[in-house]
Amino acid sequence: MYAIIATGGKQYKVAEGDVIRVEKLGVAAGEAYTFDQVLAVGGEELTVGCPTVAGASVSATVMEEGRGKKVIVYKYKRKTGYHKKNGHRQTYTQVKIEKINA
Asked: For residue range 71-101, what is the model confidence (pLDDT) as tens digits?
């Protein structure tokens, strides 16, 4: 059984036991979290919501919060001597999918 959930402006296909990284949720490590925006639930047959599946949820446990690898942003304009270097590290929350309730 799998589900498609929406969180942080992105969509993820998850199954029980999966470990995924989502946008920062602001929940401490070890706590339970429930994803309510379930767009579809699949298995033997596919159930697609309009826009979400009524009564469906995905239970997960927060494993850790962290920051991703640094991405370098380099701006440059030729002939003017303009250049600017910036870095960015996106924060994430790593969760383990425990149960798909459909």
From this structure: 999 999 999 999 999 999 999 999 999 999 9
Rounded-to-integer distance, Cα 92 and Cα 49, Å: 27
Q: Is the pLDDT of residue 2 over 90?
A: yes
Across the chain, the runs of DSSP E, i.e. the strands, are: 2-7, 10-15, 19-23, 32-35, 38-42, 47-48, 57-67, 71-77, 82-88, 91-101
> CB of 58 within 8 A of CB of 83?
no
- What is the reported pTM? 0.84
Burial, 1: exposed, middle or buried (Cβ in 10 Å; 0-12, 13-18, 19+)? exposed
| Rg from Cα positions in the chain | 18
**10 Å Cβ neighbour count for 66?**
13
Residue 67 DSSP one-character state: E
DSSP of 17-42, one letter per residue? Answer: T-EEEEE-----TT-EEEE--EEEEE
